[in-house]
Design goal:
four-stranded antiparallel β-sheet, alpha+beta, 172 residues, three-stranded antiparallel β-sheet
């Protein structure tokens, strides 16, 4: 009986992993097609819900393609225009004494990557975790992905600042 249960669980995990691999391959193919169409080459990508995100390091662009009515609709972020990238955690309200009964993580509603532009007008928010959509078991993995993307994109912003100061130094 125990052997049967273990086999069933392993089979279910295997099926889930196969579907995830197919899903990632499909999204990667869509991203690759969009990259070819817009002359972009992606060094990193991630699929989040109905969105696929790709980073072209050389052109300093992020492509975000959202699937709407079966079609991926792309839009671009030029990292040269971004000033700050942060990871935000949004919590439900916590009443007095609630933290004695529950952990802080139980109040977490979303984790998102926020990109603010130099002009101060635009802000783009990319949800990595939404409590109403995502499984709580994926929380740590999705938070790690959000922090990795923040770090990766922020390094590119620091490169932009260093590059602009070098140009100024050459002018003097």
């Amino acid at each position: 009986m125990i052997v049967f249960a273990k086999q069933t669980i392993c089979t279910q995990i295997s099926i889930i992993m196969k579907h995830k691999i197919k899903f990632d391959r499909f999204n990667y193919a869509q991203l690759r097609n969009l990259g070819s169409k817009f002359n972009l080459s992606f060094s990193s990508y991630i699929a989040l819900g109905n969105k696929i995100i790709g980073l072209d390091v050389l052109k300093r662009k992020v492509l975000i393609a959202e699937k709407i009515d079966g079609l991926f609709r792309p839009y671009f972020i030029e990292l040269n225009k971004v000033s700050v990238i942060t990871v935000q955690k949004i919590y439900n309200s916590i009443k007095a004494g609630d933290l004695k009964k529950k952990k802080i993580g139980e109040f977490l509603q979303s984790i998102r990557l926020q990109l603010e532009f130099e002009n101060g007008e635009n802000t783009i928010v990319l949800p990595f975790y939404e409590r109403t959509i995502d499984d709580i078991h994926n929380l740590q993995w999705l938070e790690s992905k959000a922090r990795n993307w923040q770090m990766m994109l922020s390094k590119m912003l620091r490169g932009k600042i260093a590059g602009s100061s070098t140009k100024k130094d050459n002018l003097n």
